[in-house]
Design brief:
CATH superfamily of the largest domain: Galactose-binding domain-like
CATH architecture of the largest domain: Sandwich
Low-confidence stretches: none
Distance between the termini: 37 Å
Radius of gyration: 27 Å
Mean pLDDT: 89
Shape: elongated
Length: about 325
């Protein structure tokens, strides 16, 4: 059949049923997942099936999922016993298992082999289909380490070619660095145009004698998929014929998969040398590609440090940052 439309009442006319449960499952799967092998957990619903515990039994919290098109919900925390290995550390997996025979989706433990890697999950259409939740590593002493493998439901759509950037300045708070570099001065100027109601023009001023910078804290959206580039607009306080500035960007991602906030460190510097405007107060654009991303991923909280290295530049007078944004694909 080349074309079909759904759903219709009755069982005889046009594209009307009967419809099987697999027909329904396939439709939900096609609508709400683009990777049936991994995706399924409903984000921001109850406790997102989070697993906790440092010893047996571990606890799977409340939440919901779409497992290969089958809706699943857990309304009460479920405990799972993890037996200790006899000789060496073992890695188990906790999955949501869809069973055609039992006609259920249930939390299931897949036991690994002592001294081995995490066991494989089962994905056989029409029989059994697992989506992973967590890896559980347990020592002979019963100490448990959890590795999150959950993947959210993602509607089966193609991201638009142009995605809204994250506007850092002047939208976000420009925090003063606590160490490493001096804080760039911040000011708000009133436009020289207009009458009684003049627009305000915020800017950050980077001195030509001291390394100065500002930090921005923001959250990456769920559509983020890498290839980040920082774009900005700046001008010079004075004429700078044949001069240049060394612009630097460093990032530290803070999320479940990274170090905690107090232990996080900025990743290696991403830098760009810019020929500064030849004319005072003439705005110029720049861009810095972020190749050292500290494993930034969708949903991460990120601290970004923007600073000017005066030892690598020879500009004179303040470099005035007018805007800064993060673009990504």
């Amino acid at each position: 059949m080349a074309e079909i439309s759904l759903e219709w009442s009755g069982t005889l006319t046009g594209d009307a049923g009967p419809y099987s449960d697999d027909d329904w499952s396939d439709r939900w799967r096609k609508l709400f997942t683009n990777d049936r092998t991994a995706q399924g957990v409903l984000p921001n619903y109850e406790n997102e099936l989070e697993i906790t515990g440092a010893a047996t039994p571990i606890s799977v919290n409340t939440g919901a999922a779409l497992v290969d098109g089958k809706f699943y919900e857990n309304t009460t925390a479920v405990t799972v016993a993890i037996p200790s290995p006899a000789v060496s550390t073992r890695v188990d997996r906790i999955v949501l298992r869809k069973s055609w025979v039992a006609q259920t989706v249930r939390i299931t433990r897949i036991e690994g082999v002592e001294g081995g890697v995490a066991p494989a999950i089962t994905q056989t259409d029409g029989t059994t289909w697992d989506i992973p939740l967590y890896q559980v590593t347990i020592t002979t002493g019963g100490a448990i380490t959890l590795t999150d493998e959950r993947a959210d439901v993602v509607p089966n759509i193609t991201a638009p070619a142009s995605i809204q950037p994250i506007y850092l300045f002047p939208d976000k708070t420009a925090y003063a660095p606590l160490s490493g570099v001096q804080a760039a001065g911040a000011e708000v100027n009133e436009s020289s145009s207009g009458a009684t109601a003049k627009p305000l023009l915020p800017q950050l001023n980077f001195d030509d004698t001291t390394d100065e910078g500002r930090m921005f804290i923001f959250r990456l959206p769920e559509v983020y998929s890498g290839s980040p580039v920082v774009h900005g607009l700046y001008k010079m306080a004075g004429a700078n014929v044949s001069k240049h500035a060394d612009i630097n960007v460093q990032v530290a991602a803070i999320s479940d998969g990274d170090a905690d906030w107090s232990a996080a460190a900025f990743d290696t510097t991403n830098r760009e040398t810019e020929n500064v405007p030849d004319t005072a107060d003439e705005a110029e654009s720049f861009s810095v590609t972020i190749s050292n991303t500290d494993s930034m991923a969708a949903g991460d909280w990120v601290c970004l440090l923007f600073w000017i290295d005066i030892s690598e530049g020879d500009f004179a007078g303040d470099l005035e940052l007018l805007s800064l944004e993060l673009r990504y694909l």
